[in-house]
């Protein structure tokens, strides 16, 4: 019985390997166009630090010291983004991890975000101006959230503004962050 199971598993392994090799041989080389699209975001790479404020649904404003670390991964086809924020008592108020990549099949960016409270989202991401201005966001029950990121001073300053809209027409501020390259 063991030998038949071992033979079966070997057969499955071999056919899976051959199938993957065949699939890879048939796929067009997309690395160069993906890298080109990702270069429109290269201004983000590095370590950033600054301040932010967030507005809770009840109107309470919370200030924080923030740090972002953004690194290239997988031959400059993916950005790994990690952000942390602490309040005036050095208590964690924000910790997020995200990956940002370009899908050559849909010709759209994909932005997957995760926060320390256990929530995650697959957000939209668009380049408004290469290496200067970006917008990302997602739907939530009762509306939508969007963030606009603008880089100034030759890429040494990062300004991000978060907004909520219940209807896609009226937008209300929920967050603002100002950072400089560390």
DSSP, total strands = 10
- Strand % is over 45%
Quickly count the domains.
2
Count, helices: 2
Distance between the termini: 63 Å
User: Biggest sheet, strands in spatial order?
Assistant: 1-2-3-4-5-6-7-8-9-10
* Major sheet summary line: 10 strands, antiparallel, barrel
The CATH topology of the largest domain is Lipocalin
Radius of gyration: 21 Å
Classified by CATH, the class of the largest domain is Mainly Beta
The CATH architecture designation of the largest domain is: Beta Barrel
Name given to the CATH homologous superfamily of the largest domain:
Calycin beta-barrel core domain
Low-confidence stretches: none
Overall pLDDT score: 92
What is the N-to-C succession of helices and strands?
A: HHEEEEEEEEEE
From the structure above, extract its key features.
single chain; 182 residues; alpha+beta; Lipocalin; 2 domains; ten-stranded antiparallel beta barrel; 10 strands; globular
Write a brief caption for the model.
Helix content is 19%, strand content 54%. With 182 residues, it is α+β, with helices and mostly antiparallel strands.
List the helices and strands and how they pair.
Elements: H1 2-26, H2 31-39, E1 46-55, E2 61-73, E3 78-86, E4 92-103, E5 108-115, E6 120-129, E7 133-140, E8 143-152, E9 157-165, E10 172-181
Antiparallel strand pairs: 1-2, 1-10, 2-3, 3-4, 4-5, 5-6, 6-7, 7-8, 8-9, 9-10
């Amino acid at each position: 019985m063991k030998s038949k199971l071992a033979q079966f598993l070997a057969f499955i392994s071999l056919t899976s390997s051959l199938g993957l090799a065949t699939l890879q041989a048939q796929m067009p080389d997309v690395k160069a166009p993906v890298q080109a699209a990702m270069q429109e975001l290269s201004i983000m790479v590095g370590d950033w630090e600054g301040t932010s404020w967030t507005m809770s649904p009840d109107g309470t404003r919370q200030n924080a010291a923030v740090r972002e670390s953004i690194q290239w991964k997988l031959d400059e086809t993916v950005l790994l983004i990690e952000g942390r924020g602490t309040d005036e008592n050095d208590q964690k108020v924000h910790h997020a991890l995200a990956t940002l990549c370009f899908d050559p099949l849909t010709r759209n960016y994909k932005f997957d975000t995760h926060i320390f409270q256990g929530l995650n989202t697959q957000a939209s991401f668009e380049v408004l101006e290469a290496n200067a201005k970006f917008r990302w966001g997602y739907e939530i029950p009762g509306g939508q959230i969007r963030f606009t990121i603008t880089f100034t001073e030759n890429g040494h300053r990062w300004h991000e503004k978060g907004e909520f809209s219940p209807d896609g027409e009226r937008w209300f501020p929920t967050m603002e962050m100002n950072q400089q390259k560390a």
